[in-house]
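User: Look at the shape:
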Amino acid sequence: MKLLREEKGITIVALIITIIVLIILASISIIEGTKLIEKSEVENIVTNMITIKAKAKVIAEEVNAEVWDLTDEEKQTKRENLYNENYKMEKGDISSISSEIRSNIDEEVTSGEYEYYQLTKETLEHMGLSDIEDTDNYAVVYNKEDYTKLDIIYLPGIEYNGIIYYTVSKLQVELNL
């Protein structure tokens, strides 16, 4: 009687199928990992913007406490001086930024007259936010009638899901924060 020898091992077809499955799993992991990294970078900038917004509201309250008993004309001058001297916030010209950025500002802020202040590294350090990078790219927009109504702008914009966002209000809506 002839004994048949059993062949042990993996066939070429099984090996190719295994390699294809591994490539598919690796590509899915890379794509999902890239999306997670992108989202975490966006969330980091949004967190910075929310922190700046909270500090800017505190500053607005402090300034309002200083000017509450002045006439409107005196308030405006004193307010600008306080922002500049005490908080190192330079009043800028809102028309110097693009209309696309201006159209992103929260409607509650732009529903009347508003002011634009560029934030610098010195401003953020004065706010206690020295760990924020990319410091010269943030600005705050205050509603003149109610300075607690404000929006924070990230001037270069943040691309998320193929759309460029410039303000914390729009990003919070998009990210459901």
User: Anything to note?
Assistant: The chain has one domain: 14-175. The chain is about 55% helix and 15% strand. The radius of gyration is 27 Å.
